[in-house]
Amino acid sequence: LRHFLTLDGLSRAHLIDILDRAEGFLGIARQAIKKVPLCRGKIIANLFFENSTRTRTTFELAAKRLSADVLNLNVNTSATAKGETLLDTLRNLEAMHVDMFVVRHADSGAAHFIARHTAAHVSVINAGDGRHSHPTQGMLDMFTIRQHKGDFTRLKVAIVGDVLHSRVARSQITALTTLGVEDVRIIAPRTLIPAHAEATFGVTVYHDLRAGVRDVDVVIMLRLQRERMDGGFIPSEQEYFRLFGLTEKRLATAKPDAIVMHPGPINRGVEMDSRVADGPRSVILEQVSNGLAVRMAIMSLCIGAHNFNMNQQDAADE
Ligand code: CP
Questions:
Q1: Burial level of 211, CB count in 10 A (0-12/13-18/19+)?
Q2: Which of 64, 93, 123, 194 has its CA 20 to 30 A from that of 215?
Q3: What is the pLDDT of residue 231?
Q4: Has residue 251 got a pLDDT over 50?
C-alpha cells in the first residue's frame, strides 16, 4: 500500500489489518512507550491547504512517535501565497528528499492529483479532500466502534447531519459496509442528503431523528459544513437544532448502551446538546486519541515498515 487516498476498493481484510495494526500502536499512542524507530531517517511533510486541528496535530504526533522528521508547511506563509503552483511546491519539497506527503485540500481529488504527479519513492496520505474522502478519519472511527462493540456485522449505525457535504460520512459509509454492517442509516433534512443516496450508498434514509436513531448501537453526528455550501438551502442553526439536534431525550430511543460519536469540530447547540457531547455515552475524545494509533499504523504501512514488532520498540530514543 504506497498511497492511502480513499477507502473505496479496499477489502474487509485490508481494513481489519489496519485496525489490528493500530492496536499494536496503542501503547505508543498512550505514551507507555515513547517512540519506535520505524520511520527513522524518513521525512514526512504535512501539507494542509485547509484548516485542521485534530488531523494535522495527530499526524504530526504520529510521525514523531515513529521517529520521522516532520515538516509542517504553513500554506498562509509559504510561497503558495505568492502564486507558486501546487506542483512546483511538490517539486521543491521532493528536492529536500521528502518521503511522504500528508495532504488536506478543499478540492475533491487533490490528494489523487498529487499522488499521480509525485516521485516514485513518495507516498501520499489523504487527510481530507473536499467533500470526497477522509479515509484516516473513517478508519479511526471504525477502530473506536470496534473497541466498544466488537463485531460489526450485527450493528445498527446512524449517521446524522450534513451528509451531502461530508467527506467523513462517505468514508464512514464505505468502511461500515465493507466491514459488514447491514443497517447503516443516514438522518438529515432532504436538502443535506446526496441524490439517490439509498441506491448509491446502500443506506436507509430518514428525515426524522427520533425514528432514525431507534434501536441503534452507534450514533455519529456531523456538523453543518457551511464552508462547502455553495448557494443551496442553508438552514438556520436554531431551526436545525430544533429538528435534528441530538438531545438526551432524542437519544433515548437508541439502545441503552449506544455510543455517540462526532469527528469534530463540534458546534454545540447546533448538531448536539452539550449534555450529550460531554455525557456518559460520548466517545468523541476517544476518537481523537485513537486517531494517533490509527495514523501511526497507516503511515508505517505506506512507508514500508510492514513488519512492526513490539520488540523493535526504542523506548530509550530521546
Ligand atoms: N475530524 C477532523 O478532520 O477534524 P479537523 O478538521 O480538526 O482535522
A1: exposed
A2: 194
A3: 66
A4: yes
Q: Look at the alpha carbons of 296, 16, 194, 272 in this order and tell me if their dihedral is positive or negative.
A: negative
**For residue 168, how far is its CA from the centre of ligand 1 (angstroms)?**
9
> Angle 135-149/54-65 helices, nearest 10 degrees?
80
* Residue to mutate (ligand 1; options 55, 125, 137, 223; most atoms within 8 A of CB): 55
- Ligand 1 center–CA 193 separation, angstroms: 21
Which of 48, 51, 52, 131, when mutated, tests ligand 1's pocket best, judged by the most ligand atoms within 8 Å of its CB?
52
CATH number, domain 135-283, options 3.10.20.90, 3.20.20.140, 3.30.450.20, 3.40.50.1370 = 3.40.50.1370
- The CB of 263 under 6 Å from ligand 1? The reply is yes
Cell 478543499 belongs to 106
Q: Does 12-133+288-312 match 135-283 in CATH topology?
A: yes
Query: Quick one: CATH architecture of 12-133+288-312?
Result: 3-Layer(aba) Sandwich (3.40)
pLDDT higher than 70, residue 72: yes
For residue 259, the surrounding DSSP H or E stretch is strand 259-261
The answer to whether residue 214 scores a pLDDT higher than 60 is yes
CA of 312 to the centre of ligand 1 (A): 31
Distance CA 262, CA 243 (A): 18
pLDDT of residue 233: 64
The domain segmentation of the chain, as residue ranges, is 12-133+288-312, 135-283
pLDDT value of residue 78: 79
Q: Residue 92 pLDDT > 50, yes or no?
A: yes
